[in-house]
Amino acid sequence: MNENLNEIDFSNLNFALDQVQIKMLEDKIAALRKICDEINPYEPLNINMQERLIEIEIHDFSDPFKITNALIKNLEDAMEELNRLKPFMHDEN
Q1: If 0-12 CB within 10 Å is exposed, 13-18 middle and 19+ buried, where does residue 50 land?
Q2: What pTM does this model have?
Q3: Would residue 15 count as lying in a domain?
Q4: What is the total count of domains within the chain?
Q5: Are the C-beta atoms of residues 67 and 53 closer than 8 Å to each other?
Q6: Would residue 12 count as lying in a domain?
Q7: Does 11 reside within a domain?
Q8: Does residue 52 lie in a domain region?
C-alpha cells in the first residue's frame, strides 16, 4: 500500500469518470429535448415549466426569443461536450 502516486494507473478511474460524465450529458440532452418538445415560449409558462427552465439556468421568461436561444445553446453545448468525450471511450464490443 506504499505505492508512489506516480506508479498508480488511474486509467480505469478516468474511464469510469468519463462514463459518468457521458451518462449525465445524455440525461441532460434528453431533458432538454423533452423541454423543447413541450414548450411554447409564446404562451404563458406554467410553474412546472418555469421550474424546469430554472434548473437549466434560464431565468428570464419574458422574451420567447431568449428562451428559445438559451435552450438551443444549452442543447448544442451538451451535444458538443458529449461528442468530445465519446471518441475517447473504449470500444465496449
Answers
A1: middle
A2: 0.75
A3: no
A4: 1
A5: yes
A6: no
A7: no
A8: yes
